[in-house]
Design brief:
The chain contains ten helices and twelve strands. By secondary structure, it is an alpha/beta fold. The strands form three sheets. A five-stranded parallel β-sheet has the order 10-9-11-1-12, with helices on both faces. Strands 3-2-4-5 form a four-stranded parallel β-sheet. A three-stranded parallel β-sheet has the order 7-6-8, with helices on both faces. α5 links the parallel β6 and β7.
Length: 317
């Protein structure tokens, strides 16, 4: 099909999108570990929630497992960017294993806050999604029962703490800003003295990507989010887009997952973004596939500039 025969399509490209500083750091940790110690390097849980990233690292010599018990004691192991319960590095130390913690520093900040509140005698309320690795890791920072997880307004209304005057609240870092604000407000209404973080727990990258989607959503006949179904921040981007006025919003792992029925004759504008663990190559691949069927013009939307970087663990030099 010649370019003259292709229907016109405007592609709105969100900014910022894709990898954040914590994801960049976690991937680099695995790469450097392989360089330093050779293959295989074991990684407990997906280093970040993206199969394309995982497959590339597997090709370099990384072996991904779910539990530390699956790792031989004589090979190094890396802990994922989502954070792990304190019991995991303790087990590694007992087995005399070499381990590298790739927990995002912004997740570590939440762990430090939880420890501080606990030491000050407060019961902690954690806003987050049950079963997500970050939540599992945060719950595992303190003794069982020290933290209560809430996911919904119903959970907030059902809270019955032993000492309602001595509470603190922390959050998962990859939540919807609006949903979290709603739960936070409900907690503060029920427990006016509840201690909150000095600085927002939802990370800068999550906030920036959600704001970028909000700025484009109402203009998009279809908004495509590249990311994994188990990636909290990617799933939230779809929800944010629909709430902000996108006519359609879909989560896809890559261009291979496009259903062309989504792009019916009424779709003239497609917005594209990517979750914080999705590589930019997937975005470019999606654009190329759209260009095979459409005469596509690309509009680069302005957005927040990101310059955050995190140091690597000292053991990697």
């Amino acid at each position: 099909m010649s370019s003259e025969d292709k229907p016109a399509l405007t592609i709105l490209l969100a900014s910022p999108r894709g990898f954040c500083a914590g994801v960049d750091r976690a991937i680099l940790i695995v790469e450097r570990a392989i360089e330093k110690w050779g293959a295989p390097i074991y990684v407990r849980h997906e280093i970040v929630h993206n199969r394309h990233v995982v497959r590339r690292l597997e090709a370099l010599g990384a072996v991904f497992v779910e539990e530390l018990s699956e790792c031989p004691a004589d090979r190094p192991v890396v802990f994922s960017a989502h954070g792990v319960p304190k019991s995991v590095p303790a087990d590694a130390e007992r087995r005399n294993m070499v381990f590298v913690d790739a927990t995002c520093p912004l997740v570590t900040k939440v762990h430090v806050e939880a420890q501080r509140h606990f030491e000050q005698g407060r019961h902690i309320v954690l806003i987050g999604h049950a079963g997500h690795p970050e939540v599992v890791g945060t719950l595992g920072q303190l003794p069982s029962g020290a933290i209560t997880l809430v996911e919904t307004l119903e959970d907030v209304h059902a809270l019955a703490p032993a000492d309602s005057a001595n509470l603190a609240v922390i959050t998962q870092t990859t939540l919807s800003i609006e949903d979290t604000a709603e739960l936070m407000a409900a907690l503060q209404r029920r427990f006016p003295g509840i201690a909150t973080s000095h600085k927002e727990d939802i990370c800068y990258a999550t906030t920036n990507r959600q704001n970028a989607v909000k700025s484009l959503a109402a203009r998009a006949d279809l908004l495509l989010v590249i990311g994994a179904a188990n990636s909290s921040n990617s799933v939230r981007l779809v929800e944010v887009a629909l709430r902000a006025g996108a006519r359609q919003a879909r989560l896809i792992g890559s261009a291979d997952e496009i259903q062309w029925a989504w792009l019916n004759a009424s779709v003239k504008t497609v917005a594209i973004t990517a979750g914080a663990s999705a590589p930019e190559a997937l975005v470019q691949g999606l654009i190329e596939v759209l260009q095979t069927r459409y005469s596509a013009s690309i509009e680069y939307a302005p957005g927040a500039e990101e310059s955050v970087t995190f140091k690597l663990p000292y053991v990697l030099g």
